[in-house]
Design a protein that fits this description.
The chain is α/β, with parallel strands linked by helices. It has six helices and seven strands, in the order βαβαβαβαβαβαβ.
Length: 237
Amino acid sequence: MSFENASVIITGGSKGIGLSIAKVFSRKTSRRLILISRNYEELKKAKEECLAEGAKGVEVLAADITQPEQLKEMDFSSLNPGILVNNAGSFLFKPLSETSEEEFISQFQINALGAFTVTRAVLPSLKAQERAMIVNISSRGGLFGYAASGAYAMSKHALLGFSRSLREELKPTNIAVTAINLGQTYSTSWEGIDVDRTKLIDPEDVGNLIISLSQLSMQSVAEEISLMPQGGEIDPN
């Protein structure tokens, strides 16, 4: 099957930015969607929402992506993946001085290790495609330190380093690697934080951007993209 018909794997696809990306693909493409998340009930709801938006087919896989043994049980080759979106993540709004060791490790596991384990599991299937693409949803926090969320910034620095190294490794192949460094984007991570969502990035813009990336020729790759709110960063209360 051609790249244009290959499926899209989206981690953290049951809610937030991941679900927004899935809905955009549902409306604007005929690609089959593969949504991965830990919560099966949330995945079932997300599947129905994507089908209602026009998705031609949706598969859901309940797994903890920080646990490699769970991914080894999955036959990704049968899903014909051509695009992998490493979106799953967690945002800890807490200074380092108040962050526990458990929270620090958890941020790394979810935001960096998870992308590594999924990519390693899916990579053989992507290499079998005539063209494939890996998109890592990173953050502006991967470029700069954050006083109010240091563990999160640490994990996104790690994710960006992973993405840059993966890009170098896969240059001889037909697999494009892109890191999207997101500024403040509205998602479920903002629940409980006093912020005006209209001043944040619309999460569907991320989906539109990924579709545009998938339409580039095999001769081109956008290695890193920064997406920011029009008015710049805002200070949450």
